[in-house]
Amino acid sequence: MLVKAAIATPSGNSLSEWETRLKLLGLLCLVFAFATINDLRLLPLMIITALAVYRLSALPASYLISRLKVPGIFLLAMAVVLPLSAGETVLAQAGPVALRLEGTLGLLSIAARFFSIITVATVLLASTPMPTLVRAMGSLGMPDLLGDMLLFTYRYIFQLADDLHRARVAARLRRARLGSLSSIRTTAYIVGSLLVRSHWQAERVLAAMTLRGYGNSRIDVSRPAPGLRDFAALAVCVTLAGGFVVTQTFFL
Predict the structure, then answer these.
(1) Are residue 135 and residue 149 in the same domain, yes or no?
(2) Is the same domain home to 116 and 155?
């Protein structure tokens, strides 16, 4: 499998040292368990669990906040609509606008799950280099071609962002007012140019890889065997995830 990319990740903490395959399985178990929780009594415990995982990663709080900003925009839009439109029990009313209990509770449930899932996913991606994560996915059964596509997407999305930035700067230097209705044609030209250049880039990369024998052989990368602590951490995650699901299903 092609593995050629790098990302700076924090080191010296237990989650960075956790064997990648077991870490992937354990944290994904937590993510799927969080996604199934809708009982309000379990939400505080879910948030505490997610924060505990983040604390073990030794990442700064500012890093998590920066990762919550963009998806938080969609949550903000939902916060405006859901409490005012869903449900029949009115908590407060000002003219035609009414704050409803069911919508407010639904928003709390969505916000808690959103925060917990994003937090655990941030830990997984920040504590593991992307090539290592893709290799772990491959060892768990993901096709090599899909792994290579993930790595290339990860590699060239930054170059595409740089090309877009340069194109926007060039357009502004030519007095184009991007963002207004009058600049729709200019924006369309920029996007179209980026798509064409991306297609040419993909063809050149494929040709270069083919000349170097890509696809004709498979390189097996040796991986260290998981230790007792790795399996213990996996057991803790699976137990927590199963505890959430069982508690909600049978006891609440």
Answers:
(1) no
(2) no
Question: Cα–Cα distances in Å, from 245 out to 42, 53, 106?
Answer: 10, 18, 19
Is pTM beyond 0.85 here?
Answer: no
> How many separate domains does the chain show?
2
Cα separation, 40 vs 10, in Å, equals 34
Determine which helix (DSSP H) or strand (DSSP E) holds 91, and give its type and residue range.
strand 90-94
Range of the domain at 196: 144-211
Do 36 and 123 reside in the same domain of the chain? yes
In terms of average pLDDT, the best of 57-71, 107-121, 199-213 is 107-121
Nearest to 43 by CA among 194, 252, 210, 185: 252
Contacts made by residues 151-160, CB under 8 angstroms, sequence distance 24+ = 151/2, 151/3, 151/4, 151/5, 152/205, 154/5, 154/130, 155/4, 155/5, 156/198, 156/201, 159/201, 160/194, 160/198
